[in-house]
Every structure is written in structure tokens, then in C-alpha cells.
Amino acid sequence: MFEQIFENVRGKSPLVHCITNYVTVNDCANMLLACGGSPIMADDPEDAVEITGICKGLAINIGTLNQRTIPVMLAAGKRANELRHPVVLDPVGAGASALRTDTALRLLEELKLTVIRGNISEMKTLAYGSGTTKGVDADVADRVTEDNLDGAVSFARELARRTGKRKVKQKGTKTEQGRYSSKYALTELLVCGECGTPYRRCTWTVKGEKKPVWRCINRLDFGKKYCHHSPTIEETVLQEAIMAAIMRTAKQSADVLGTLKLHIGMALDISDTEDNSLDIQIRIAEIDAEFKAMLQAIATDTVEEFDEQRATALMAEKNNLEQQLAQYDSAQQKKENTESRLNEIFTILDGLENHPMEYDDRLVRQVLECVVVEFKERIKVIFAGGLEVEQTIPV
Asked: What does the domain layout of the chain look like in residue ranges?
């Protein structure tokens, strides 16, 4: 198989656009050449999308991430998606910092990725929205051994299944960080209380009648090898229990409803930060003016030599200020998206006080953080913001 793949690559010699880190850029170029491909590196905003258009594939690596290249990665990725080119992502260090984690999740959310290459901790960060990556290495706690190899394989397959089926976020939509779009909200939220593995929707035939049920993935794939007591739950029974927990919490009292809103608001965090963007823009204009004056002075021979040290300092300061401006823009967009989501959630919660509702995937996605199957007769419903409610299931 691999021989045929290499022959195919060498026969076509595809041009591959690499937005990679400064440490491995030479290795990436040499590896592509050795395989029979042709590398090209471009990460400038005015260059990258055009380069993607003439290539046959795109590789994105966030190893030396900075604010300037994030929009370049997104724009190049979207162009590659339009052209139906393969896109490879290496989420280096996802889980080690907020910037890397947020960026990796955003790339996963907005791009259709062909291959994701990463260590186990980086993959868990993509699956769960947070992680404990140690720099660019996997956390010792995530180490794959002979004892947990089958579970790790199951996890990888499930992540591949979810990312492969999810819908790419379209312009103008708002999706929560780290969530996968799915027809069934519980695919993203329902987990086993015994082994921590997600549940999967299945269809069982009982006495000739087909019924949708939810089962722990470890139990489905490996029987009782890793998970011994996780129950199978009928979908209608599970949905009724979840809605009962939501309705009971919303109706309990105005105080409880207010607390729920407070928890959700705190979790989403729309706190204001001091906006110094105008001062930054003014300072950038001053730097440009000073630099222009330096160039004019040397051109008219009014100074003996160009002050390279001063010019370097000015350009470094300008670059730093431009990165701060980009952060302000990103924070403002995040705040607007968060406020919009809060308004949607609060509207739903206010309506629950006096108007019973049937199970609704949109409501569940907005209001809940997780649903844990503790026993056959009990689940734990965790609301966005951390409020936990125990709910019995009729057996």
C-alpha cells in the first residue's frame, strides 16, 4: 500500500503549502522533497491564501504560534477547503496554554481537517476542550501502556468519528469552544460515570420493535473488559429524566434560577477589560512618523548615518503593539459572541419557569455542560457554570 502511495506522490509531485513552526520548517521541507513532493512556506496575510490556491495540500503546525499567523491559518485552511485539498493539523502544545488550546479548537471548529497529528494529551485537549499537556510532550498521566492500549484506541476512533461527522462552522454562526456539531446533543454530553468514556447512540431491536438506546463506548467495543457496570438506557427515558432535571431546577425558585444564570454568566465570563486600543493606535502612528522622518533625514543627507539601533527598537515596539491590537479585536469578538449566547440561554431559562417543554437538543446544548450516567436509576446533570443536580430514572 505504502509503495503505491509513494509512487502516486512522486508521479504527481504535489506542491504543499506549509504554515509550520520555525523549529521544524527545514525538516518539513526536506521530508516533502524526500517523499517526492514540493514544499512552499508562506505565512504572510497578503501571501498565504494566494499560495494555498496554487497548491494541492496544506499543513498547519502551531508549534511557534503568534497572533499574526492565527488568521492566516484560518484563511488558508478555508481556501484549501473550498478547493477540496487535504488539510493536516499538528496542534503542538494544545493544552499547555490558553492561546494554543483556543487556537487548536478554533481550527478544529472552523476547518474541515483531513488528518490531525498529535500526542495523546493534545488529542484529549481537542476532545474535551482542555488538557494537561506538558509543553509539547504528553502528560505522564495520559501515557499509553499495554494495560490501557485498547481504551486509547477506542478513544482515538471515537474522536475520529466525531470530527469526521461534525459540520464545519459557517460564517456568522456561534458555537461553543470545544463542542462538535452533531445531530444528537447527548453525543457531546453523555458520559459514563464508571470509566469516563462517552456514550453512543445505538438502535436495538426488541421483540421486532426498534428502539434507540445509549451505551458506554467501552462496553460496546470491549464488553466488560474496562467497564463492568455501565447501564444501557432507552433514549426516551433518558431524555425525560434530563428535561425533568432542567424543569425542576428552573421551577424550584426564583433564587435558584438566578443562581443558575449567575453560574452560567461567570463561566462564560463577559467581564470588561480596560481598552487601550486608541492609545496603541496613536503610538503606532507616532512610531511610523518617527521612522519616516529617519528615512527622510538619511535621504537628504541631514544626518551622518542611519540609527539602526533606534529603528530596530521602533519596529519591535510597533510589532508588539500590533499584536496587542489583534488581541483586543479577538477579545471583543469573543465578548460579543458570549453575550449573544447568554441572551439565548437566559431567554430559554425564563421560558421554563411557567412553560413545560419537551426534550430539545438545542436547549440541552445551551444549558448543560455534561450528563453523567451514575447508575441505571440515576444520572447527574451538570449545568453550564458547574451547578450539579441528581435526577432519578424510572426503572
From this structure: 2-165, 182-395
138-193 pLDDT per residue, tens: 777 777 888 777 777 777 777 777 666 444 444 333 333 333 345 688 887 898 88
Q: Which amino acid is residue 239, in one-letter code?
A: Q
pTM beyond 0.85, yes or no: no
Please spell the DSSP secondary structure of 30-95, one letter per residue. Answer: HHHHHHT-EEEE---TTTHHHHHHH-SEEEEE-TT--TTHHHHHHHHHHHHHHTT--EEEE-TTBT
Candidates 134, 160, 181, 131; CA nearest to 362 is 181
Angle between helices 149-165 and 120-128 (to 10 degrees): 50
Going 93 to 95 to 99 to 102, the CA torsion angle's sign is: positive
Q: Residue 190: which of 316, 354, 359 has the closest Cα?
A: 359
The residue written with cell numbers 471548529 in the block is: 109
Domain 2-165: top CATH class: alpha beta
In which residue are the cell numbers 438502535 written? 203
Each residue of 164-195: b (16+ CB within 10 Å) or e?
A: eebeebeeeeebbebbbbbeebbbbbbbbbbb
Q: What is the pLDDT of residues 279-309, one digit of tens each?
A: 888 888 888 888 888 888 877 776 677 788 8
DSSP structure class, residue 140? G
